[in-house]
Amino acid sequence: MRKYVIMCFLSSMYILVGKMLIFLLADQHALGNTSIYPFFNNAYYIIGVIIVIWTVKMIYRKGFHRNKKELIIDYLIYIVIVLLVYTLTNMIIDKYLAHLMGL
């Protein structure tokens, strides 16, 4: 169970910190159309998908669940956590970081 919580936390932190770093270091609105923004953005999403797949496999293999219903509930909890953190990250960027940069 501890690995499940750690993986959820690491996925959430990657989403939060990664998206903010991309916005701060390579935002196309602040820096114009630079070639580095698509590279960072694509790398962010590719690594994010790899982390999500790794976590889903870990949830399935470790057997935290006793039956299929608990497995589905674990997957739904993970999906909700990822979606909430992604939404929270976008809200933080829109409300705080964009205003700091004058956008």
Order of helices and strands: HHHH
**Straight-line N-to-C gap:** 43 Å
For the report, how would you describe the main beta sheet? none
Q: Rg from C-alpha positions?
A: 16 Å
Total number of helices: 4
- Mean pLDDT across all amino acids: 82
How many beta-strand runs? 0
Domain count: the total is 1
Describe the structure.
The protein has one domain (2-100). It has helices at 2-26, 28-31, 36-62, 68-100. Helices cover 86% and strands 0% of the residues. Helix 1 (2-26) runs antiparallel to helix 3 (36-62) and helix 1 (2-26) packs parallel to helix 4. It is built from four helices and no strands. With 103 residues, it is mostly helical.
Short description:
The chain has 103 residues and is an all-alpha fold. It has helices at 2-26, 28-31, 36-62, 68-100.
Write the layout of secondary structure elements.
Layout: H1 2-26, H2 28-31, H3 36-62, H4 68-100
Features:
single chain; 103 residues; mainly alpha; 4 helices; membrane; transmembrane
